Amino acid sequence: MGAARTLTMDTAASPFRADHARILRGLERSAVEVPSGDLLTERYDATVREAAVHTWRDRMVNEHRSAAVFAGLVPQLIEASSTIDVQTVALRAATDEIYHATLCGDVVRAFGGEAVATAEPALARMPEHPGLSALERAVRNVTFVGCLSETVAVALIAEERELSEEPFVRATLDRILPDEVAHARLGWLYLTQQLPRLEPGAAGRMARYLRVAFAYLERREIDLLPLTPPEIPAELRAQREAVGLCEGEAARSLFYRTVTEVIVPRFEALGIDAADAWKHRREAAAAERH
Ligand SMILES: [Fe+2]
Ligand SMILES: [Fe+2]
């Protein structure tokens, strides 16, 4: 058992205090209005509708799973004696992800599908990282979620939003995108604020952890990104983009650019050698398998 932790209601010196106050003022969330009649089913090719249903249903499951991820961060933030505003932001993010799941479900229905999915019965638990202090454990997991997963999500969703010409889909992505930006911000702000407070050598430990984290992220994101069959004609490709599907090579290269041009430089600016970690990620993955 570690030493007793401190619970304080004082957020005066915290960068999250404005978020905290705003969240408490109101959690107004509304659905996007679904176009009336059979507009969406008439406008798109059957294969495009089917792809839209399939992809948005997968997104529904992923968004909902993210709610558990953020909720799982909360006990670790509590154990780390974080200020309570950070806990509010993490809990709010969990609520956002549930809301996003409902929005994705609306898109599934709009394209003629049922907003029902089967998913794994048990969710992975938030890693404990034995040997780390409670604070460093929380920083590490908030970093993975915010600085890696959510930062990649921001890039992909921004691109999908850019491509989507279907107003209902675009309106949906307009609701989701700012939340994902806030989720990424939670990671970067918390890391920036807490890194100097960790025990000596924390930047080096983070860089070593990033090798494993990058390898895991790459595997997961590349698995999630659907490959567009190469024989799809240009006209149908345009329809797929209009309904928010960013697929294949375009999505892959966007993922790699986000890591190397956004994520790695931001870590480097904090004194964490992420460029080296990215370069050596495959060795970390190989070592893990042995
Ligand atoms: Fe989300
Ligand atoms: Fe998110």
What tags apply to this protein structure?
single chain, 290 residues, Ferritin, 70% helix, binds fe (ii) ion
What does this structure look like?
- With 290 residues, the protein is mainly alpha-helical.
- The protein has a single domain (44-289), classed as Up-down Bundle (Ferritin).
- Helix content is 70%, strand content 0%.
- α5 (134-163) runs parallel beside α7 and α5 (134-163) crosses α9 (248-269).
- The mean pLDDT is 88.
- One fe (ii) ion (FE2) binds at residues 63, 66, 97, 100, 176, 180.
Concise synopsis of the structure shown:
This protein has 290 residues and is mainly α. It is 70% helix and 0% strand.
Measured between the Cα atoms of the first and last residue, the distance is 32 Å
Tell me the β content: under 5%
CATH architecture: Up-down Bundle
CATH fold category name: Ferritin
Q: Write down the secondary-structure element order.
A: HHHHHHHHHHH
Low-confidence stretches: none
Number of self-contained structural domains = 1
CATH top level class name: Mainly Alpha
The bound ligands are: fe (ii) ion
Look at the helices and sheets and give the structural class.
mainly alpha
Radius of gyration: 20 Å
Please count the helical segments.
11
Report the helical percentage. 55-70%
Tertiary shape: globular
Quick check: average pLDDT?
88
Largest sheet descriptor: none
For the secondary structure, the number of strands is: 0
Which SSEs are present, and which pair or pack?
Elements: H1 17-25, H2 39-43, H3 46-79, H4 84-110, H5 134-163, H6 167-194, H7 202-224, H8 234-242, H9 248-269, H10 274-279, H11 281-289
Helix pairs in contact: 1-4, 3-4, 3-5, 4-6, 5-6, 5-7, 5-9, 7-11
The protein binds fe (ii) ion (2 copies).
One fe (ii) ion binds next to helix 5 and helix 6.
